[in-house]
């Protein structure tokens, strides 16, 4: 198996530390790398994924796990009974969720009381737009200026996934992708959603900074360039 990227290693270490004998869910598991690596570690880990058009090709990359360890999200519902898991992981998923309240309600439902949710994702305050590689592109994407901002970034050499695309085609397609598949929220909106759905919130950016050996980074800098790292304990059951 190829070496895991840093975020995958971080969430897997968190799960190993917090639920070594418990049941773990990777919410929005993508291509199933964390699920597969967790199983190799002996963890009792599952995944769920929406298999949406803008996401990774889970069905091709992890087809041997689908139906047993990786299940499909169904209309926003997590396909597991109440109070199934001790730990839920979510790596770079919540910025692709249109209805965060619905997702947190479902995660609350499948978590045991006192269970923990670890979520990594950017807020609207992030400067670096990690999907397209052009800073601040998400702030302008709803306007026509967003296209020209992307085009300018691409013209000076910025941007990801540029192969076989003209600059204009790339800018048009990424603007549409940001508008269709990304939902950035303010930090205040995010924290209010967590609190209202029975979770407390503890920032864990310091842990990532230490593990990545970024000595000059502060948590604010990390949130601006990488995103938030939130540890949340389920304090109460919330329905609806």
Concise description?
The protein is of the alpha/beta class and 240 residues long.
Straight-line distance between termini: 40 Å
Our Rg estimate from Cα atoms comes to 18 Å
Unreliable stretches: none
Helix content: 25-40%
Overall morphology: globular
In total, the number of strands is 7
CATH architecture grouping of the largest domain: 3-Layer(aba) Sandwich
**Structural class, judged by helices and strands?**
alpha/beta
Q: Characteristics of this structure?
A:
single chain; alpha/beta; Rossmann fold; 2 domains; 7-stranded mixed sheet
Task: Tell me what you see in this structure.
The chain is α/β, with parallel strands linked by helices and 240 residues long. The protein has 2 domains: 169 residues, Vaccinia Virus protein VP39 (Rossmann fold, 3-Layer(aba) Sandwich), CATH 3.40.50.150; 45 residues, no CATH class. Helices cover 38% and strands 17% of the residues. The protein contains 10 helices and 7 strands. The protein has a 7-stranded mixed β-sheet. Helix 2 links the parallel strand 1 and strand 2. Helix 1 packs across helix 2 and helix 6 crosses helix 7. It is globular and about 50 Å long.
Topology record:
Elements: H1 6-18, E1 23-27, H2 33-40, E2 44-49, H3 58-61, E3 70-72, E4 85-91, H4 100-110, E5 111-121, H5 137-140, H6 144-155, H7 167-181, H8 187-196, E6 202-203, H9 205-212, H10 219-225, E7 228-233
Parallel strand pairs: 1-2, 1-4, 2-3, 4-5
Antiparallel strand pairs: 5-7, 6-7
């Amino acid at each position: 198996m190829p070496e895991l990227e840093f975020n995958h290693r971080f969430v897997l270490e968190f799960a190993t530390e917090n639920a070594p004998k418990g049941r773990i869910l990777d919410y929005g598991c993508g291509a199933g790398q964390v699920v597969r690596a967790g199983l190799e570690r002996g963890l009792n880990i599952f995944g769920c994924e929406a298999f949406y058009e803008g996401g990774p090709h889970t069905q091709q990359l992890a087809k041997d796990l689908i139906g047993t360890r990786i299940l499909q999200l169904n209309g926003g519902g997590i396909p597991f009974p109440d109070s199934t898991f001790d730990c839920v992981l979510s790596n770079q998923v919540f910025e692709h969720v249109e209805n965060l309240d619905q997702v947190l309600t479902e995660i609350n439902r499948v978590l045991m009381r006192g269970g923990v949710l670890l979520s990594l994702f950017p807020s609207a305050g992030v400067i670096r737009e990690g999907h397209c590689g052009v800073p601040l592109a998400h702030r302008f994407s709803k306007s026509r200026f967003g296209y020209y901002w992307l085009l300018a970034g691409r013209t000076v050499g910025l941007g990801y996934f540029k192969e076989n695309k003209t600059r204009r085609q790339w800018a048009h397609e990424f603007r549409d992708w940001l508008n269709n598949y990304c939902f950035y929220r303010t930090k205040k909106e995010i924290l209010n959603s967590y609190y209202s759905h029975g979770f407390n919130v503890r920032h864990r950016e310091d842990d990532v900074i230490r593990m990545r050996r970024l000595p000059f980074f502060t948590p604010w800098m990390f949130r601006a360039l990488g995103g938030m790292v939130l540890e949340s304990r389920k304090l109460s059951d919330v329905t609806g």
